Amino acid sequence: MPSLRHTIADDLRTQITTGHLKAGTRLPSEPMLAAQYKVSIPTLRNALALLQAEGLIEKIHGKGNFVRHPLRRLMYTGGHLTPDTDLHVTIRTTNVRARGDLIPLLGVPSRTPLTEFLYLTHQGESPHSLARIYVPRELASTGPPWPRSGVEESRDKIRARHPTPEEATTLRISSTLAVLSITRVSTDTTGRVVEAALLVLPSDRAEALFVTHHTANAKGQEG
After folding, report:
1. What angle do CA 119, 162, 203 make, to 5 degrees?
2. What is the pLDDT of residues 7-51, one digit of tens each?
3. Cβ neighbours of residue 95 under 8 Å, at least 6 residues apart?
4. Residues 170, 120: contact at Cβ < 8 Å?
5. b/e string for 147-172 if b means 16 or more Cβ within 10 A?
């Protein structure tokens, strides 16, 4: 027998997918929904969390729960996100000092001056993806990175994990929704790290594509 939270989620999901609840619609308040379904508020929130994890609704702090517009999927291929005209990006620049994991990541001493570029991608009013890019301060004068000139090699480390509380709040996603976490380190011809990018792509709107080009071996000569 389905649990109460799954029964509630199934009913709301049906209303959304059939168009009874249209994209952008604000759901009734949580106390009103709890009263409507005759459940406690914690049970109601558990049901809403299931729909948040599916990308069907989003909770906006101070405003309530809204039916989400269909999300465009991001493609991460060739070490870059494929541009999408329906998405727009805001960039915030901050001067910081190397600390914590940034020290070994960029191979610099503690408190080395860095510039942080915070990229937040939106689809309409909804946050879509997040990236923090760190560049040695003296290289940041060339403007926003990505792709940065003079890069000889870039290496990506990719893993799936749950978002941090800050990431979940910024991206308006459930803390139970997996994200694709990409750490991209770029070096120049001397091996110096010129850029370290930390990307967070929610799993309900991102795909990673990896292409391998195989070079045929030359035919062996007969001895």
Report:
1. 65
2. 999 999 999 999 999 988 999 999 999 999 999 999 999 999 889
3. 113, 114, 115, 116, 137
4. yes
5. ebeebeebeeeeeeeebeeebbeebb
3-class state of residue 21 by DSSP: coil
CA dihedral over 16, 18, 22, 27, signed as positive or negative: negative
Q: What is the mean pLDDT of the segment spanning 161-179?
A: 89
Average pLDDT across the chain, whole number: 86
Over the stretch 68-83, which tens digit does the pLDDT of each residue have? Answer: 877 777 777 766 776 5
Give the residue carrying structure tokens 């991206």.
171
Q: Do 87 and 123 contact (CB within 8 A), yes or no?
A: yes
Record the pTM: 0.71
Q: Which two tokens stand for residue 25?
A: 């619609």
Look at the alpha carbons of 192, 197, 203, 209 in this order and tell me if their dihedral is positive or negative: negative
- Residue pair 15/67 in contact by the 8 Å Cβ criterion: no
What is the distance between the alpha carbons of residues 117 and 120, in angstroms, rounded to a whole number? 10
Assign residue 172 a region (left: φ > 0; alpha: ψ between -120 and 50; beta: otherwise): left
